[in-house]
Amino acid sequence: MHKYQSEGGPGPENVAALFRRVRLASFYDISSALPYTAAAPEVRSLHRSLPGAPVDAAAARVTAGGCRGRHVS
């Protein structure tokens, strides 16, 4: 056990698991931005390129051109 792990830090397996979760979270974030009318056009374009991406009524309205600006957080 390394010093960092002995002081409560994550091991290599935990760090690898974190990277896998973060990579998957980005696709969720893209899909969750679609219902908002201020979604950026590049987000909509990226979502359409995902295989099996769900399209609900709100997402269809945004993709059809209801977007007027960018979401600012």
Which keywords apply here?
4 helices; about 70 residues; about 0% strand
Portion of residues within helices: 55-70%
Bulk shape: rod-shaped
Q: Output mean pLDDT.
A: 65
- Proportion of beta-strand residues: under 5%
Order of helices and strands: HHHH
Rg, alpha carbons: 18 Å
The count of strands amounts to: 0
Total of helices:
4
Main β-sheet description:
none
Task: Give the termini distance in whole angstroms.
Answer: 41 Å
**Low-confidence region ranges:** none
What is the oligomeric state here? single chain
| Sheet/helix structural class | mainly alpha
Describe the overall structure.
This protein is an all-alpha fold. The chain has one domain (11-66). The protein is built from four helices and no strands. The chain has helices at residues 3-6, 12-33, 41-49, 57-66. Helix 2 packs across helix 3. The radius of gyration is 18 Å and the shape is rod-shaped. The mean pLDDT is 65.
Short recap of the structure:
By secondary structure, the protein is mainly α. 62% of the residues lie in helices and 0% in strands.
Protein topology:
Elements: H1 3-6, H2 12-33, H3 41-49, H4 57-66
